[in-house]
Amino acid sequence: MFGFFKSGKPPAPPPEAPSAQPAQVATDPAPARPSWAQRLKAGLAKTRGVLNTPVGDLLRGHPKIDEALYEELETILLTSDMGVAATQHLLDALRARVKRDRLTDSAQLKEALKDLLAELLAPLERRLDVGTARPFIIMLAGVNGAGKTTTIGKLAKRYQSEGRSVLLAAGDTFRAAAHEQLSVWGERNRVEVIGGQGGDPAAVIFDAIQSARARGIDVVLADTAGRLPTQLHLMEEIRKVRRVIQKADPSAPHEVLLVLDANTGQNALNQVQSFGEAIGVTGLVLTKLDGTAKGGVIAALAQRGLSTGQPIPVRYIGVGEGLDDLQPFAAREFVDALFA
Fold first, then answer.
1. Across all residues in the chain, what is the average pLDDT?
2. pTM here?
3. Going by DSSP bridges, is the β-strand pair 314-318/326-328 parallel, antiparallel, or unpaired?
């Protein structure tokens, strides 16, 4: 019935008859993915280490609210890279809160500080609505290595999960690997990428917008080459890209996102200033918060907005490499994770 293998080996024994009750195979359930709140807390661990832990130690060692406590607290805030202006703002507000609420126990200062930091950051919390135009054109800019390409891939995935169609414009035509990286993200998300190496970046993005309009695409994510604010010829080029986008659609770009690497600390303020003057930045993406102890720079960005009267919202923050590790910024959620 079974025959022999050509190797001459004897035939395999007949299969055993099935038992009356099928064997139950024990399987461990797949571990649940941590929630965003848990991932945010883990991602802010380094910054929390230079802020939350020293604050706790300070307050335990200073039961009385005095000038020495304020001086040590100032050092801690500066160490987390909040910057001089934001630190002074928080300390002035904290002194006023102590006087207003008649606080006498230093243990009460931590909650007061959290509340004041959340108030400072609140103007940065504004969600991006990509449904106000079609196609909704997002231009992304930033220095080399800030994480623009990764951010584009994560945004593409996010907007797709909302039921929107997405097209990627590979406007970084100078870096050899840029188009390849974007293509990988496009393949992963099943999104078309328009562009190629060596071409005119403005022309690439113009063609992508025309294609998106013809096909009824919801969102266009337009990449640009990384550049330093001191590279004046490249800053002029990115101005040209913006002008060409406006020719393709007079109402566009509908959002100009500046991608900032949190590791740059206070230098992020210079980037906001320079790119803002060149292309009119309307939103920020703060990446790599999980790899730095300088997460306090977000307070410096908020203080800058407070002093100019024109806060630029932080649309998204990133705390990991996963596709869903880029999420909209929420001030209170951020502060709670920072002091958890």
1. 88
2. 0.87
3. antiparallel
